[in-house]
Fold this sequence. Notes:
Its EC number is 1.13.11.93. It comes from Promicromonospora kroppenstedtii. This is 2-oxoadipate dioxygenase/decarboxylase. Belongs to the 2-oxoadipate dioxygenase/decarboxylase family. The protein has 17 helices and 14 strands. It is of the alpha+beta class. The strands form 5 sheets. A 5-stranded mixed β-sheet has the order 3-4-5-2-8. Helix 12 packs antiparallel against helix 13 (337-351). The structure holds 2-oxoadipic acid (OOG) and nickel (II) ion. Nickel (II) ion binds at residues 67, 69, 129, 227, 229, 298, 396.
Amino acid sequence: MPAPAFLEPWQLRAAFARSLSDMYGKEVPAYTTLLDVSHEVNADFVTQHGADAERLGSIARVTAERHGAIRVGTPTEMSQVARVFGAMGMRPVGFYDLRDASSSSVPVISTAFRPIERSELARNPFRVFTSMLVTADRRFFTADLERRLENFLGARTLFGPDLLALADRAEAEGGLPEDQAAEFLRLATAAFELSAEPVDQAWYRELEAVSAVAADIGGIASTHINHLTPRVLDIDDLYARMEARGITMIDAIQGPPRWEGPDVLLRQTSFRALAEPRTFRTADGEIISDSLRVRFGEVEARGIALTRAGRAAYDAAVVEIDEAAAAARADDPGFTEAQRQEIARAVWQKTFPTTEAALADQELGWFTYEVDPAGAGVVRQPIVYEDFLPRSAAGIFQSNLTSDGAKDASQEGTDRDADWMAGALGRDLNDPFDLYADQVARSLATAAETLGVDPA
Ligand code: OOG
Ligand code: NI
């Protein structure tokens, strides 16, 4: 009898990404349209650009590539999510505080679970932006509301014992036999399905008045995938094609502008998903049907990862664009998004060089170096950005909310940082810059070894 097949973490990750995508396509039909259009855009881009189209990832990787977003309520839930993703070889990377990322602030802190090894990213780069409610933040929640939220969150179970036991086994043993893998994938997918359980109307509305994100996280007894994002090779083309199909996108592409130089970091855009039917339990115990609009569609294009210096230049450019746009808007109430893009492009032209070689020479972007087997010396390859941007993330959250909520600016926020997040996770939190630097160092060491020279 043949030995039963065994699924390694990357195979669990790839299968989970597919299973979640199938589930989400049934729940949110506009997502399927987005996938169709993304495939068209990518196929056309490859036809037009040939081998160059694959400099930042093979077309096989990009076609399967997704990121998801989920939101949980407590450190316990966060540590459980870490176990489920740990089974799939996804590690927590980066700390994002979205409570004061510009004017659009939401009461959450976040990390991203993703593979960290180059070979693992190439096999399947599935990543999940994972946010956690900060109930202790007095700018959003009074002490009384915090206590009731904590009671509500403490009484629910998002991830059952069977799922967690399988996750722990997969992590300890480096995978699962086929039958257990199937069960793990079924339970993990179900944990992120939209629940049909009636929502307590008074509780949901009370939280919504403070923050729509707080209601989405703490107003219901389950969690759900909030969005699933495909990657495209030309996001401007995708934006135009979606609008042509009658799907209204948010008015801007977040992140760097379109310009003539190399694409860096991440550009993202989104559209509001349709209202989804949900049942509510009213204060008199009556069950009524209504709808909620909390989920949406998002798409992204990924560019070259920036070094700390490159990132500082990016952050300064974002501030400069904001200030210039605010001044222009004050002079002209008819100021448009197209005009803002013009300003952004001008700032970009004086901030970043227009060639990859200069980006590498000025140490603004990350690149690996490999010895060319044909003997033509050392070849430089850009490293793709695998992470997120706090400013864009807050913008994506905010642009899809029904209301701004009410924030008490007279109160102090609660300190949360990367160490706090690591404690909540019960795991090391990886620094994205360290991961990119490590990748470069390893490529240099290998190249030096091949050439028989001292890497220094
Ligand atoms: C997460 C928003 C952030 C991104 O791509 O920056 C995000 C959320 O809405 O839960 O997904
Ligand atoms: Ni997203």
